[in-house]
Structure to design on (491 residues):
C-alpha cells in the first residue's frame, strides 16, 4: 500500500498524455537505451510514480526522465527534492551499517536491499509497516550501489549474481561456503514482498537480456533464479494471500521465460517441460493470464516441433483462458498462433480466417489490460508471424513481403528480433528466387551475430546458405557464403 504521505503526481500523469502506462513505460526504456542506461520500467512502476508512491526517482531514472523531457527539472516532473525525501537519513548521525543475512526480517540473504524492477532498492518494503515512498535509498551511497548491482546483473556471466538477484544465492566475501541443501538454495523463514519483487525482477531482466542478445548465452544462467522461485513456493509461508498469488504468477512467468530461452536455443524438449510447469502453476493458482501465456508459448513450440494440430488446439485453449482478460492484443497473438497451426496443416482457409481475426483484434489497439510480457508484440511481430504462415503454405514471395515489413518496422534496439526478422527474410528471398537480395539480407544478419546468440537465427541463416549454394558463382552470393563459413556459425 502507498503511505499516507503519497500525493498523486499530476504533472507526471500529464506528460504521459494519451499513452497507456505500458506504452509510456516502453518509451522510458527506449529513452534509457539512447543514453546507455538500462531500466526495467513497466506499467506498474509508472502507476507508482503517478500515485505518488515514488516521490523522487533514483539516479538512473532521473537521467532517463531528464533526457526524455529536456529543459524540465525533477520539480517540473512532479517529484520532490531528493534532500527532502531523504530527510530521515539526513538527520541521522551517519550511514546505516550494511545488513547481514537475515536482517531484512525475512530470514533471507538481504533481498530487500537488492534492486527491484526499477533499479531501486527495496528499502523498507517489507511485509509490514509503512513503505518508504522514495525511489531512492536512504543514502546516496546505497542508491549508487543499487545501480552497480543492477549493472552487475546485466553484464555478469556468473550464476551467483543471478541467484543474488533473488536474495537467495552467493556467499559473502571471506565467508565459508554454506553446506548444500535442497537445490543449494537456503529457503527463507517467511516470504514477503521483497522476495516476490525479486522474482518479478528476474523475469524482466531475462526478457531484457534476451531482447538484446538472444537465448544461447542465457539459458543455463536462468535456471538458477527459476529454482530459487520454486523454492520460495515450496517454503509456503507468505504474509498474505496477495503475496502468494504474485509469487505463483512470478514463478510461472519465470518458468515461461526459461522455457523460451530453451526454445530459442533449440532445446525443444526442455522448453516443453518448462511450459508445462508454468501451465500447472497457472492452474493451481487459478491465474488465467498466466495460463493464456503458457498456452501461447506451447502453441508456438508445437508449431516449431511439427505438431501442428496441437498448435491449433493450444492456441484455442489460450483464447478461452484470455477471453475475460480484456486484452485484444493478447487475443490477436493467440489468433496468430492458431493461424500458424492451420498453415502447418495445409489448411489455407483456416489460416486465412485466423489471420483475419488476428488483424481485427490487433487494430483495436493496446490497452492497460495487455500483459507486461507482450511488450514485444507490435506491428513488426504481427508481420513476422504472418510471414511464418505463408512460409508454411509455401508462398515464399508473400512471406518475403511480410518479413521485409517486419525488418523495416522493427526498432533497432530489439537486436535479437531484428536479426531474426532479417534471417527469415533471407530464407524467404532465397526460396523465392531472389539470390542477390537474400545474400544482402544474410550479410545484415551476420553483422548482428556478435551481439546475438540464438540457435533459431543461426539455423535459419544456415538454411539460407544451403539454398543459395547452387548460386555461389554470383558475386553477392559467393561473398555471403564465404563470410558465413568463416564466421563458424553453428548449424
Amino acid at each position: 500500500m502507498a503511505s499516507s504521505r503519497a500525493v498523486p503526481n499530476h504533472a507526471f500523469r500529464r506528460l504521459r498524455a494519451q499513452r497507456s502506462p505500458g506504452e509510456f513505460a516502453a518509451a522510458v526504456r527506449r529513452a534509457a537505451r539512447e543514453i546507455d542506461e538500462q531500466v526495467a520500467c513497466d506499467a506498474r512502476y509508472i502507476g507508482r510514480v503517478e500515485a505518488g508512491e515514488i516521490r523522487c526517482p533514483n539516479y538512473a531514472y532521473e537521467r532517463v526522465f531528464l533526457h526524455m523531457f529536456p529543459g524540465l527539472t525533477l520539480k517540473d516532473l512532479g517529484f520532490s527534492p531528493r534532500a527532502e525525501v531523504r530527510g530521515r537519513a539526513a538527520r541521522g548521525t551517519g550511514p546505516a551499517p550494511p545488513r547481514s543475512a537475515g536482517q531484512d526480517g525475512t530470514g533471507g540473504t538481504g533481498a530487500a536491499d537488492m534492486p527491484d524492477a526499477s533499479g531501486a532498492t527495496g528499502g523498507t518494503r517489507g511485509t509490514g509497516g509503512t513503505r518508504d515512498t522514495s525511489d531512492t535509498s536512504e543514502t546516496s551511497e546505497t542508491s549508487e550501489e543499487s545501480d552497480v548491482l543492477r549493472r552487475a546483473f546485466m553484464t555478469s556471466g556468473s550464476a551467483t549474481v543471478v541467484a543474488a538477484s533473488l536474495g537467495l544465492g552467493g556467499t559473502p566475501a571471506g565467508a565459508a561456503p554454506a553446506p548444500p541443501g535442497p537445490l543449494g538454495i537456503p529457503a527463507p523463514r517467511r516470504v514477503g514482498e521483497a522476495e516476490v519483487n525479486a522474482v518479478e525482477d528476474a523475469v524482466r531482466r531475462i526478457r531484457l537480456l534476451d531482447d538484446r542478445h538472444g537465448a544461447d548465452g542465457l539459458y543455463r544462467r536462468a535456471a538458477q533464479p527459476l529454482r530459487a522461485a520454486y523454492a520460495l513456493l515450496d517454503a509456503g509461508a507468505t504474509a498474505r494471500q496477495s503475496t502468494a498469488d504474485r509469487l505463483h504468477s512470478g514463478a510461472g512467468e519465470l518458468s515461461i521465460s526459461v522455457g523460451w530461452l530453451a526454445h530459442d536455443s533449440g532445446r525443444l524438449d526442455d522448453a516443453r517441460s518448462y511450459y508445462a510447469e508454468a501451465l500447472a502453476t497457472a492452474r493451481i493458482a487459478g491465474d488465467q493470464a498466466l495460463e493464456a501465456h503458457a498456452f501461447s508459448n506451447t502453441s508456438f513450440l508445437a508449431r516449431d516441433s511439427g505438431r501442428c494440430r496441437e498448435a491449433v488446439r493450444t492456441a484455442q485453449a489460450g483464447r478461452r483462458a484470455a477471453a475475460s482478460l480484456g486484452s485484444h492484443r493478447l487475443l490477436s497473438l493467440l489468433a496468430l498462433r492458431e493461424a500458424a497451426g492451420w498453415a502447418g496443416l495445409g489448411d489455407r482457409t483456416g489460416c486465412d480466417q485466423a489471420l483475419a481475426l488476428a488483424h481485427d483484434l490487433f487494430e483495436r489497439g493496446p490497452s492497460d489490460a495487455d500483459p507486461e510480457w507482450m511488450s514485444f508484440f507490435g506491428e513488426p511481430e504481427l508481420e513476422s508471424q504472418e510471414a511464418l504462415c505463408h512460409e508454411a503454405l509455401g508462398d515464399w514471395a508473400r512471406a518475403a513481403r511480410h518479413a521485409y515489413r517486419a525488418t523495416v518496422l522493427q526498432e533497432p534496439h530489439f537486436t535479437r528480433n531484428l536479426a531474426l526478422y532479417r534471417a527469415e527474410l533471407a530464407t524467404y528471398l532465397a526460396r523465392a528466387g531472389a539470390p542477390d537480395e537474400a545474400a544482402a539480407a544474410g550479410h545484415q544478419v551476420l553483422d548482428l551475430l556478435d551481439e546475438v546468440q540464438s540457435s533459431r537465427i543461426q539455423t535459419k541463416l544456415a538454411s539460407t546458405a544451403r539454398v543459395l549454394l547452387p548460386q555461389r558463382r554470383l558475386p553477392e552470393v559467393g561473398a555471403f557464403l564465404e563470410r558465413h563459413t568463416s564466421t563458424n556459425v553453428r548449424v
User: Anything to note?
Assistant: Confidence is low (pLDDT under 50) at residues 86-188.
